[in-house]
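Input set for joint prediction.
Command: fold jointly, output tokens.
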Amino acid sequence: MRDDEMLRRPRLRKGCRLRKDEAVVLVPEGIVRLQGSGFAVLALCDGQRSIAEILQALGLQFPQTNALELRKETLAFIEGLEGRGVVEFVA
Amino acid sequence: MNPTPLSLIAEVTHRCPLRCVYCSNPIELEKRESELETADWLRVIREAQALGVLQLHFTGGEPLLRGDLEEMISEASRLRIYTNLITSGVGLGETRLKALVAAGLDHVQLSVQDSSESGAERIAGVGVHAAKLRAAALIAQEPVAFTVNAVIHKMNIERLGEIIALAESMGAQRLEVAHTQYYGWALVNRAHLLPTRTQFEASREVVARARARLGSRMKIDFVVPDYHLDYPKPCMGGWAQKMLLVEPSGRALPCHAAGQITGFARESVRESSLEKIWNESALFQAYRGLDWMPEPCRSCDRRDVDFGGCRCQAFALTGDAARTDPVCHLSPDHALVRAALEQTSSAQLKYRGDLLSDSKQERKF
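tokens >
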């Protein structure tokens, strides 16, 4: 990912709602189950934080996880949800 | 151990200002007098939440005809259930929409019948296209997810490109391009609606091109016409596995069309809890899992993939809900589907709510 892409600020799209108790994000066409750090990632996708800032916050929350691994997984997770129409980037 | 239902489809009324020729409602539409009261629906919503339901789809008929929709949404919202309103948009003015959103509505799914006013009127039987455009402009302004749903068939398939452009201009974030499924009124009008193979293939290409152009700006879900497939659809994710439906009068069913299957007692939320019906009702248990399956499903590699297809379609076409879905090319009844694909329209187009038997009417005179 290039530097300018690290500055993009993701957020949940309208009508997509996190439910912590069930570890899911509820979306118009169904339910996306969240595993591992998935909930923590989406909770940080508030349209304010950049991807770089999200990675930094996750590094503090998951100090045991290898930083490169966390970065790779988080980016793939956010991109995947963007493709499914769950996440969008603030212009 | 039974599975947990994740969705409840609340068919809150069969009343509707539209008379669409493809409507999936039953031929015997329920009257206003037989509809559940507000208190019943609020109890059903609480019982659904206790059963594990996470999403609630309000549909009909036109759900906006229920003045207590706000109360139902509010109760679901309190229980943190995701709420979806499936509507024609008729009667959705600014005040009503804002009240629904304030109650906690998460998602609006607006139907469109065609790209033009005249085309839409021919399909819906009434002229409501302009009202839909007004409703769309309001929905797009609100903090809710906005999906446009277009049911596709022979009467509008040549204008699919224009229909996609319409949804785009409405500001939808999602579009469902759903080929008609043949239940209820759609089955009555099948010969007028079922597209040819060439039309179906063309529609697939139109959607592929639109997806490439739109990216994530407007996501398109494409529901294919199962009559043109080799294998059946995994209907409802398996019988009584993931969702349940409550009809306007309170009858609980595993899906929209299950009420037509004969030989089962009518189980209503007026007399039983949703939990009891889900776990014990003969209709819900009848086709759960794989034990009910006949050949060729029983020994098929795909039995866990499509679950033998749709029980309601098997019943509608063969009179026996426990047969393989005739859509499957391995079904002994597949000739019924092939014949339907060759059938040309001779009968008159019937609008939803029309009397079906002309001869009965004639006998009155």
